[in-house]
Amino acid sequence: MTDRRELVAVVLAAVALCALVFGRVLLDPFGVFTGEDGVDAWGTQWFYWLVGRRVLAGEPFAHTDLLFHPWGKAVYEHTGGNVLDALVALPTRYALGPVAGYNAFVALVLASNVGAAWLLCRDLGFRSGAALLGGLVASFNPTVLGELEGGRPTQALLAFALLAIRELIRTRTVKGFGPSLRGAFLLALAGLTYWFSAIFVVLVLTPWILADLVESRSGRHAARVVGVLVGALVLVLPLAWPMLTGLGEGAVGGLLDVELWTATTWSPLTVEGWAIGVEAVQLPTGQLVVHRLVDGELVATPIRRAIAWMELPLLGAGLLLAPPRLRLRLAVTLGVAVVLMTGPELAFGVTDPIYVGMSKVLSPLQRLWWPARAAFLGHLVVGIAAAAAWHRVPAAFRLPGVVAVIALISAELAVARLVPLSATPAEVPSLYRCLAGREGPLLEVPLVGVPERLHWQAVHERPVFGGMIDDNPVFAPAEHTAFRLENGFVRALDDLGSGRPARPVDAADVDAVRALGFEWIIVDLEPIEGGDRAHRALRQYLAGVAGEPAYDDGRMLAYSLEGSGLSCP
What we know:
- It is a single chain.
- With 569 residues, this protein is an alpha+beta fold.
- Helix content is 57%, strand content 9%.
- The chain has 24 helices and eleven strands.
- The strands form four sheets. The chain has a four-stranded mixed beta sheet with strand order 8-9-11-10. A three-stranded antiparallel beta sheet has the order 2-3-4, with no helix packed on it. Strands 1-7 form a two-stranded antiparallel sheet.
- Helix 1 (3-21) runs parallel beside helix 18, helix 3 crosses helix 5 (84-96) and helix 6 (98-123) runs parallel beside helix 10.
- It is globular, with a radius of gyration of 26 Å.
- The protein starts with a helix and ends in a 9-residue tail after the last strand.
């Protein structure tokens, strides 16, 4: 088989793989979002809408009072300043609308990942067809697809990181400072997309670069490598400095209390004493697990596969057939990636002292609740290994081999429920469409636990009392939390929205809610536990405060604290 025919065969296999991945979304690209129905997915839709709104208005991203009104949300602190993917998604969202535009952006994320990995494999000396197969393996894997399934394209957009790796490696083989300049820019872009991606790249690639420096014994090569790192740091320093100083001063919430960690013990507790979940890869099962405290005991709960079994023979074959110099670098790089992605627990209750030590020294890792995200670099090693193995496959076996590899990977991803990706309806209740263009904030019931309201706000565009992960003090302003707990009316709405009985209404507490600018109480009956009994109790309570609802379609209710009417079709 000629190189061109082999490349065509791999491209056709890639198209078939994409059709499998996006099969559900392709049936209704304008009506469903790629990914599952979850808080991260709806938060992404809200954030992309906010960024587009702010760009058009020429306003900064640092703060918004659209959530947790009237106190607002420090968007910069919540996202770490990572807005690049939202900016990159703007063209497709405005060209195709928020739904199809997002779906197109997700497809471009995968395509850009494949392209970047393909370029990297080509630079390592592999044929186009073999390099493209390596790009597919590096991109269509449980880590990348799992992030897209969860509605987190920020963590799935790896092209900048992969291209930065390519330029770092090219600092040895290409004369001049071109790779340094491009590498610095790309590494900065990787950080601005997701800070930990850039941190992972530097940590994982350090052994590779050190080996190159020892081999080359070139001061100019060393200068070019330093140029990449220093240049990237200078480019991101305006955004990185406030976070770094905040880490040092304890101003960043949710840091893991690594002072309690030892070489043999660790705990998913933050310095505030909150018990959180730490997502990591568990060896030797290859499962993505969440480490949590259950009755004081550390328990690892499996979520899905993080490593496809098909990757193991590809890795083995690649390490066996790769040139000795590349083989050693891949093995060491994979070892560092494993240390990172397994987090503080290496395997079955065995604490990893290397990761523990790194976390104590590197303060950013103390906010890393998801070390499993470093697995993308492990998948990249597998992709390079697959390209190395395929480069040596006899021509007669290439076409059936490509089909077999893609089919086996697809089957395994399907078993992991990552192929096809979920399709979540993007519909918005009629009441919120009716409220669009009107003034005034909304107080929504239930107060917590309805993440799709983040997407609905992109339609009605009015400030709301709640926000994202409303009941978590890491993400909610202290003033909001205090008011929600201290105001009797809000506390009663919280109880009723959870199916619990409420205390009698206090006029002073209702007046305090009015004083904050809230006129409309919006009720979504569907998520309220307790059925008709709970619904009747809530209706009766609000009737005593605001009379009959101004809007009632059986699911959504709207009550005016000022007695205003609401004309909706």
